Amino acid sequence: xxxxxxxxxxxxPCGYLVVADDGRLMEINATLCGWLGVxxxxxxxxxxxxxxxxxxxxxxxxxxxxxLRMGHAVEEVYLTxxxxxGEAVPVLLNAIRRAEKQASEWVVVRIxxxxxxxxxxxxxxxxxxxxxxxxxxxxxELEQTLEExxxxxxxxxxxxxxxxxxxxCERVKGDKAQWESALQLLKxxxxxxxxGCCPDCMPRMVAEFGxxxxxxxxxxxxxx
Amino acid sequence: xxxxxxxxxxxxxxxxSGRGERWLVFAHGFGCDQxxxxxxxxxxxxxxxxxxxxxxGAGRSDGAAYxxxxxxxxxxxxxxVIEVIDALGAREVVFVGHSVSGVVGLxxxxxxxxxxxxxxxxxxxxxxxxxxxxxxxxxNQADIEGLLDLMDKxxxxxxxxxxxxxxxxxxxxxxxxxxxxxxxAMKPEVAxxxxxxxxxxxxxxxxxxxxxxxxxxxxxxxSVAPESVGRFVHRQISGSTFHQxxxxxHCPHVSDxxxxxxxxxxxxxxxxxxxxxxxxx
Lengths: 224, 281
What we know:
The complex is a heterodimer. Chain A is an alpha+beta fold. Chain A has helices spanning about 1-10, 30-35, 40-45, 55-70, 110-160, 180-190, 200-210; strands at about 15-20, 25-30, 75-80, 90-100, 105-110, 170-175, 180. In chain A, a hairpin with a 4-residue loop joins strand 4 (about 90-100) and strand 5 (about 105-110). By secondary structure, chain B is an alpha/beta fold. In chain B, helix 1 (about 5-10) packs across helix 2, helix 2 (about 75-90) packs across helix 3 (about 100-110) and helix 4 runs antiparallel to helix 7.
């Protein structure tokens, strides 16, 4: 019975391996040898690394082996095995460590079809993630712009409304309900303030800078 | 900025055990957490104050403290080491770092020479990618991309790819309790960045800056940090010593804890750090 079972395991529709804690490949069934295109004699006793891709060797060493060694099993781990010709074979691994044998039993199933589909799903997920990041950034920009617009819009609205003004000091009540000079309010707004001189103050400037009034360039609005 | 010591100790889930004058700090590598040292660390508790911790983002560290900018380079992890040692008020510690943690430890020792008396680098690699001609790290760009892809496709991996089945270990009752916690847990995005930072790092130029006495432990058949890389580290760090382990793979502290303990102990005795050696001297 047990011989028959061994025989059946050798040709079962899954890959079966026994991997020692020190990394030696102790057993490998005929099915897996067929998938990998390797002769049993060449890989049995060698390091399991010979049938793993470089990425999987590392993943096995840093993530799978420690978990197994600490007395656990792993299920549904995605790995890539390495064919004799170097090609990668995507598989799912279930493994359990047998402490008394200081080795782990592995069962692997090929997921080439499913792997391609998963790859597409993963790509779609990454694309969605990138799109979402882009969306979040755009939303933030939009919110900032909106905030600025609100600020400048307030003044425009006020132009058509009433601006409360103190009857004594002539300060005005601004957008944040604070009292300030109209000039301060304008300075905080998006209105661009340039320097100039009105006709009433022109004599003062002429005196200060020693200019003659006729030197000043004419301006449509009587100022410059 | 000085952070409150208690916050750091909680942030990095720092555990201190054992007794002795000297401090022995065990730092885990990429892929797991401080539990990796559980077979080795207890052997030193009679002679040392033994420290274990999780880097931010790993194990039971405070996940909220993870800052992608700070941990965007190994220097961020070196800051964890410095802050933990400072928070303990320790000086002249013996630092044992596995894999990428070896490099993290030497970066920390370059910044704060006063904190370290000796560095023990277990399977270190200052650069995983081949830089030809002249340097073979063991990986090319596609290999690293392949590793990141594996991590993406085992999304539960770092938190939950373990079978729900718990094996009964009559001789190790402590295992049962520990399994309640997820083992080697790490958020996928954190694991992914740690992997990038680890496997794309190139700290070869930093090796010559190390002033702390350094010992390299090299595994056999290590596909992650091959022997040529361990010997390169040894050659570049002046005055360093090198020991070849017969343990196979990249995690000797897990695959052959006894040999790892012997190797660390004999170095500590040779370096006259162990109390026994001090008494004999």
